[in-house]
Amino acid sequence: MVAKDIQQVKQRFGIIGNAPGLYRAIDLALQVAPTEMSVLITGESGAGKEVFPQIIHQNSLRKHGQYIAVNCGAIPEGTIDSELFGHEKGSFTGALADRKGYFEFADGGTIFLDEVGELPMPTQARLLRVLESGEFIKVGSSKVQKINVRIVAATNVDLAQAITGRKFREDLYYRLNTFPIPIPPLRERPDDMLLLFRKFASDCAEKYQMPPIQLDDEAKTLLQSYRWPGNVRELKNVTERISIIEHDRTVTADELRLYLPNLNVEKLPALMKGSDEQKIFHNEREILYQVLFDMKKDVAELKKLVHDIMGGNIPMSMPVDDGEPYARPLQDMSSIQEIETVEESLSLEDVEKEMIRKALERHGGRRKNAAIDLKISERTLYRKIKEYHLE
Q1: CA nearest neighbour of 215 among 231, 196, 228
Q2: Cα–Cα distance between 226 and 6 in angstroms, integer?
Q3: DSSP type of residue 87
Q4: CA–CA dist 289, 301 (Å, integer)
Q5: Global pTM?
Q6: CA nearest 91: which of 102, 77, 73, 79?
Q7: Please, where are the H alpha helices in the chain?
Q8: Spatial separation of the C-alpha atoms in residues 373 and 365, rounded to whole Å
Q9: CB 66 within 8 A of CB 53
Q10: How far apart are CA 343 and CA 304, in angstroms?
Q11: Label partner for 112 (CA 20 to 30 A): which of 118, 151, 177, 228?
């Protein structure tokens, strides 16, 4: 497919980004659209799968027919057969009249089954029959009805694994997966992240009549390094929250970090790009400081716990292991020595002092903001400042 066609599709459906994986997905959707093949769209939650069935429908011979989108995961298991295939009057309690299902309404058009991996096994058998013969039976009826509908399905579930766990029919998988279209996660589209951020910031600014937020250079690097487990949906939510909460319209990396709850050492980028390598090193080091800072608190709590146990002061709420509360730690006296050794070898007091100093420096000496950054109370921060002579 020529690039011109893809650009037209992007403009028509509001798709933002230039990543090769995204272009490939659009190209596949355009190629399969004129056919009657079933399509399975795969990708992580929030990656934007829902737009591709619309691309397929609008570029198919069925574009003048009905397009119906169904979220299979949002329909209770007890009513999903009725919702999809309809029911006869009196077929169950509350069935006061005949009712058409989504498949019957979509006759001659396209039905999009989102979260198809959430379908219960009996419903999967009904769906397989539609795919194989174009036939279905309403709930409570014995009459076979013919239907002409194209099925496009999407899932964020690993269907191969679901088949192994006997939660998804293998024959249905192969019927749906006639033409697969994988959607790349946002973490594989680093350059698109900035484009999407600007788009979401602009939309939010227009909606709420405010200047759009911007990112400084270090914040842009952080934005691109974050893995975005919630993908485009998470980026949109974060952008809107920052737009509403932050008064300064230029957001720094420290401010952005407060909105990325899943940021940790494992998710630091191995391929962070940028000429300012020193800044990248400082970011990683500061996160390691935070890890060690938390570790010191854990060590202190563990020492106190062991001390209480040795003194016979075992809290009543302690868990029981085989009827003997904390029998093993009492038998291994080296545990206390190991705790002391870990604490001394890591110089955690120095790490804690440095972490507090940097937090105060980042926030211009504002102790309230520094305490939030460090995830400790202001009272604890005041005590630590005095203890380490950081006034």
Answers
A1: 196
A2: 28
A3: B
A4: 19
A5: 0.65
A6: 79
A7: 3-13, 20-32, 51-58, 80-85, 102-105, 121-133, 159-164, 170-176, 190-208, 217-225, 231-245, 253-257, 277-310, 327-331, 334-346, 348-362, 367-374, 378-387
A8: 12
A9: no
A10: 14
A11: 228
Alpha carbon 84 to its chain's center: 28
The residue type of 84 is L
Residue pointed to by tokens 């007890």: 78
Residue with tokens 């604490």: 343
**Distance, CA of 292 to CA of 349 (rounded, Å):** 10
- Integer CA distances (angstroms), 381 to 43, 298, 302, 369, 378, in order: 44, 17, 21, 11, 5
Q: What is the pLDDT of residues 272-317, one digit of tens each?
A: 444 344 333 344 445 555 566 666 666 666 666 656 555 554 444 4
| CB of 169 closer than 8 Å to CB of 175 | no
Q: What is the residue type of 20? A: P
Helix 334-346 vs helix 277-310: angle between axes, to the nearest 10 degrees? 150
Strands 110-114 and 67-71: parallel
In degrees, rounded to 5, the angle at the alpha carbon of residue 180 between the alpha carbons of residues 174 and 181 is: 160
Q: What percent of the chain stands above pLDDT 90? A: 56
pLDDT of 50 > 70? The answer is yes
For residue 92 the two structure tokens come to 């169950």
Residue 19 to residues 76, 187, 224, 268, Cα–Cα distance (Å): 37, 11, 14, 21
198 vs 241: CA distance, rounded Å? 14
Which residues are registered as beta bridge partners of 110?
67, 150
What is the rounded distance in angstroms from the CA atom of residue 147 to the CA atom of residue 106?
9
Phi, then psi, of 195 in degrees rounded to 5: -65, -45
Answer whether 145's CB lies under 8 Å from 137's CB. yes
- DSSP state for residue 116 in the 8-state scheme: G
